[in-house]
Design goal:
By secondary structure, the protein is of the alpha/beta class. It has two domains: 103 residues, Roll (Urease, subunit C, domain 1), CATH 2.30.40.10; 303 residues, Metal-dependent hydrolases (TIM Barrel). 27% of the residues lie in helices and 23% in strands. It contains twelve helices and 18 strands. Strands 1, 2, 3, 4, 5, 16, 17 and 18 form an eight-stranded mixed β-sheet that branches. Helix 2 runs parallel beside helix 3 and helix 7 runs parallel beside helix 8.
């Protein structure tokens, strides 16, 4: 590959070229030159209006459904969806069939995605089959290539299990990712508990169900002096709890799902099952706190919360539909216009922070580094259509909606795709 990017604005807080418009010459997957008015013979030239570039984006907690649930998604289609959304890497949850709970399953994912345009990083299960009872051989999975450990869409309910998991990963500086959702206080809940749940006659999921588990996990992280990632916080009090924990210099990070920065429970008045997600859509004061937490650094990264479902699982009456929506293709276009005057923060939350949490290489935009890049136009407004979806599933609430932030292309592993 001989590629010349012309007049590209760099958005990368780790790069010496951050905030500057430069030309970038890439050869054999390596950034060879960065500067003004670069001229190279026989290079493919990319020159488009309002071109921005950053280090490639990475999604934490993607549901890939492969192996075993390929009717919903597979490694090929999830990679296509990720690239279309500007992601050059995904760290995938272990909720497959069989569960990614041993080194052989970790090796399956790595072997079947190695060298592709989109890097796929396995997250190993904390408990066998994510059942919450029997702890897995996390050390073996770490050696095989697992980048973190989690029961994914299943919260770790047992206090002792969570404590032992945090202790287990400490010797190799591993990180436990937990989705805070206490099922016993959210029993059979359908949407956020509040005025809207009462109005619609729906059983509610109280904010308490999230906050109780956040409190517990913070205490256990402090007790074990181990690394914890709180996955997809959604409440204002949850943000405050994490902020206070970080003031104590605990080894804690947190993420927020893109949809929870945009929608509130009021949007559920239409009973759109594509808006039935976990964590549930909360209230406007929660969105305000989440945005503030993201800007201040209390919340480290943004996730797509990509959870694909076949049509039979979503085209049902609301109480019977599964939780989840796809999100890889829409994350940036959703978040970008809704987190005002903070493009650098959004890009850091999509690229720098996820890699820092998982201990991965930082492909900063500078000479000599591997070209792992996302190309985008943050100002382009477009209508998202079903034909734009590369995921095998189509359960998106954004079909027919205007989004802002077009993905121009991605470059990684000496491969490129332009859209």
């Amino acid at each position: 590959m001989r590629l010349l990017l012309k007049n590209a604005k760099v958005i990368d807080s780790t790069s010496p070229h951050h905030g500057k418009k430069v030309d970038i010459f890439i050869q054999n997957g390596i950034i060879e030159k960065v500067g003004k008015r670069i001229s190279v013979a026989d290079a493919e030239i990319i020159k488009v209006k309002d071109l921005h570039i950053s280090m490639g984006w990475l999604d934490v907690g993607t549901q890939v459904c492969d192996p075993g649930l390929e009717h919903r998604e597979d490694l090929e289609t999830v990679s296509q969806a990720a690239a279309k959304g500007g992601f050059t890497g995904i760290a995938c949850f272990p909720n497959t069939d069989p569960t990614v709970h041993s080194k052989s399953q970790v090796q399956y994912i790595i072997k079947n995605t190695k060298g592709n345009l989109v890097d796929v990083y396995p997250i190993g299960a904390v408990t066998s089959n994510c059942n919450g009872r029997d702890i897995t051989e996390m050390y073996d999975m770490n050696k095989a290539g697992a980048v973190a450990f989690s029961d994914g869409g299943y919260s770790i309910e047992d206090n002792g299990m969570m404590m032992r998991a945090l202790q287990y990963v400490k010797p190799f500086n591993g990180v436990i990712i937990n989705h805070p959702h206490d099922k016993t206080t959210a029993l059979n809940g359908q949407i956020h508990e509040g005025l809207m749940s009462t109005s619609l006659g729906m059983r509610g999921i109280p904010s308490l169900s999230e906050e109780l588990m956040i409190i517990r996990d913070i205490y256990l992280a402090e007790y074990t002096d181990s690394r914890l990632h709180i996955h997809n916080v959604s409440t204002a009090k949850g943000v405050r709890l994490i902020k206070n924990a970080k003031k104590k210099n605990l080894k804690i990070t947190a993420s927020v799902a893109a949809m929870n920065l945009v929608f509130t429970d009021n949007d559920l008045e239409s009973f759109d099952t594509h808006l039935k997600v976990l964590p549930p859509l909360r209230e406007s004061n929660d969105i305000k706190a989440l945005k503030k937490g993201l800007k201040e650094g209390t919340i480290d990264c943004i996730t797509s919360n990509h959870r694909p479902w076949h049509i039979e699982a979503k085209d049902l009456e609301f109480p019977y539909a599964e939780f989840g929506a796809i999100g890889l293709e829409t994350t940036f276009g959703v978040v970008n216009p809704n987190v005002e005057n903070n493009l650098e923060g959004v890009i850091d939350a999509l690229s720098l922070a996820p890699r820092s949490i998982l201990g991965l290489e930082m492909p900063s935009v500078k000479k000599g580094n591997r070209a792992n890049l996302t190309l985008f136009n943050p100002n382009k407004i477009f209508t998202f259509e079903e034909k734009d979806i590369r995921s095998k599933s189509k359960n998106s609430p954004f079909i027919g909606k205007e989004l802002q932030g077009e993905i121009i292309g991605v470059i990684n592993n000496n491969l490129m795709e332009l859209f």
